[in-house]
């Protein structure tokens, strides 16, 4: 994992702390190096000044020793530089450039034998440069030839020791400063980023509770307040979009319900249509097969709808159809299903039957109901109809066969003389070609329905 990726996984508080401490450390290191260089320069300059001062002080004595004394006298004269531990080293070179005498401090390098060897000698990047002082009989006469050369080498060991002590103190100060900076940076970062944490907590609360109206935290500074305002604006837009989406969903639900109603219901009577009836009958047959219980289909066909349309107009014909639907619905039992197939054809599905005789009794109820006008009917006259009854599984084992059997039974009912009665005929076998002939025998009973005769018959195969 790269350093950038690792850094991106840190929290803002840790990032701010690291950035602050790193910046502080770099600044302190830069300041420390600068101070160390300045200190080194000051020490070097001080060493050169001290060496030059000692050379000036000792020049008269050493000049006299060179002029009138021997090696021992010259060596003794150099003792002036032995001022204690860490003193400077000194050497005297003759007029010809040869080493005459030297005083070397402990741990320091000895001087070269010839003055020409001093070039580049003992001059590292942290070393103080040598001080060369020409010794003349007349100090005031700068043009007089020198009798010897005094070379002073500042004590490099003392200079380095002072530098390392300064660097150690600087390192200790830097360490304590960095530690203090870490503590201060953590507290400062947490204080500065607390508004961001509060804003994050608010966003998580809104996300968990779905309460888009929860008040947002304030008082986190200009930038955080601007971010909070942007979040509030975004959440307000989301809330508005949610409301619009719910409204669209409701409209779509209503539209789907309307389309479904149009697809599976009859617009005139409000009854289920043929597709809905076939779906319901299919499910009922599957259930009847599973439990082993019969069901009945009653096919109802109006006898005089065309005559009503021709004599009274289609508006009255529509009123007669709506009255028929209302009267049949009123005559049915709980659990019976009524649908309009097309035109003047209605169909009833009754699952609460055990025998064809019980199915015929349902047909009898319909004959009574069709003869009774309701207060809300626009068509208040009697309704004549033919009813065919088919029972599952006696007269058909699927939707098509069962409906066809009921349809054929209805046509057989129409074969009865049209004497103002409602005819009900039950199929006795699967219909065959030519089965729409007049039944060979019938059972006729009278029902007390407003003076109307009701014929209930049985078509024989």
Structure notes:
- This protein is α+β, with helices and mostly antiparallel strands.
- 52% of the residues lie in helices and 13% in strands.
- It has three domains: 160 residues, 2-Layer Sandwich (Beta-Lactamase); 54 residues, no CATH class; 185 residues, Alpha-Beta Plaits, CATH 3.30.70.270.
- It has a six-stranded mixed beta sheet, sandwiched between helices. Strands 2-1-4-3 form a four-stranded antiparallel beta sheet, covered by helices on one side.
- Strand 8, helix 10 and strand 9 form a beta-alpha-beta unit.
- Helix 2 packs antiparallel against helix 4 and helix 7 runs antiparallel to helix 8.
- The longest helix is centred in the first third of the chain and has 57 residues.
- The protein is rod-shaped and about 180 Å long.
Structure in a nutshell:
The protein is of the alpha+beta class and 461 residues long. It contains 10 helices and 10 strands. The strands form 2 sheets. The chain has a 6-stranded mixed sheet, with helices on both faces. A 4-stranded antiparallel sheet has the order 2-1-4-3, with helices on one face.
């Amino acid at each position: 994992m790269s350093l950038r990726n690792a850094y991106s996984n840190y929290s803002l508080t840790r990032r701010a702390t690291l950035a602050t401490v790193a910046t502080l450390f770099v600044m302190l290191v830069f300041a420390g190096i600068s101070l160390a260089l300045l200190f080194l320069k000051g020490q070097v300059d001080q060493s050169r000044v001290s060496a030059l001062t000692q050379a000036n002080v000792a020049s008269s004595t050493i000049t006299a020793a060179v002029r009138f004394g021997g090696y021992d006298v010259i060596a003794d004269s150099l003792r002036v530089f032995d001022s204690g531990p860490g003193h400077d080293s000194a050497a005297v070179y003759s007029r010809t450039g040869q080493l005459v005498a030297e005083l070397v401090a402990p741990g320091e390098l000895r001087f070269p034998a010839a003055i020409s060897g001093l070039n580049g000698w003992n001059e590292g990047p942290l070393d103080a440069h040598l001080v060369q002082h020409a010794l003349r009989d007349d100090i005031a006469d700068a043009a007089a030839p020198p009798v010897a050369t005094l070379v002073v080498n500042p004590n490099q060991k003392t200079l380095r020791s002072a530098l390392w002590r300064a660097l150690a103190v600087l390192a200790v100060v830097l360490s304590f400063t960095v530690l203090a900076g870490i503590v201060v940076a953590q507290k400062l970062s947490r204080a500065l980023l607390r508004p961001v944490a509060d804003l994050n907590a608010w966003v998580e609360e809104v996300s968990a509770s779905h309460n888009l109206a929860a008040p947002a935290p304030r008082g986190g500074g200009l930038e955080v307040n601007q971010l909070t305002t942007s979040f509030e604006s975004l959440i307000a837009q989301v809330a508005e979009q949610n409301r619009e989406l719910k409204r669209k969903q409701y409209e779509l639900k209503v539209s789907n319900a309307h389309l479904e109603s149009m697809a599976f219901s009859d617009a005139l009577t409000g009854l289920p249509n043929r597709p809905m009836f076939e779906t319901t009958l299919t499910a009922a047959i599957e259930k009847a097969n599973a439990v082993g219980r019969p069901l009945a289909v009653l096919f109802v066909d109006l006898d005089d709808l065309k005559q009503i349309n021709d004599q009274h107009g289609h508006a009255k014909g529509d009123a007669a159809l709506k009255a028929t639907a209302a009267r049949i619905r009123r005559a049915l039992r709980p659990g019976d299903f009524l649908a309009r197939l097309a035109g003047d054809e209605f169909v009833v599905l009754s699952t609460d039957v055990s025998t064809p005789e019980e199915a015929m009794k349902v047909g009898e109820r319909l004959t009574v109901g069709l003869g009774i006008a309701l207060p809300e009917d626009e068509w208040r006259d009697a309704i004549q109809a033919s009813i065919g009854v088919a029972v599952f599984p006696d007269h058909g084992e699927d939707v098509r066969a069962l409906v066809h059997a009921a349809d054929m039974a209805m046509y057989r009912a129409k074969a009865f003389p049209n004497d103002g009665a409602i005819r009900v005929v039950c199929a006795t076998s699967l219909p065959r070609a030519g089965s729409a002939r007049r039944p060979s025998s019938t059972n006729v009973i009278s029902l007390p329905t407003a003076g109307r005769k009701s014929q209930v018959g049985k078509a024989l195969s």
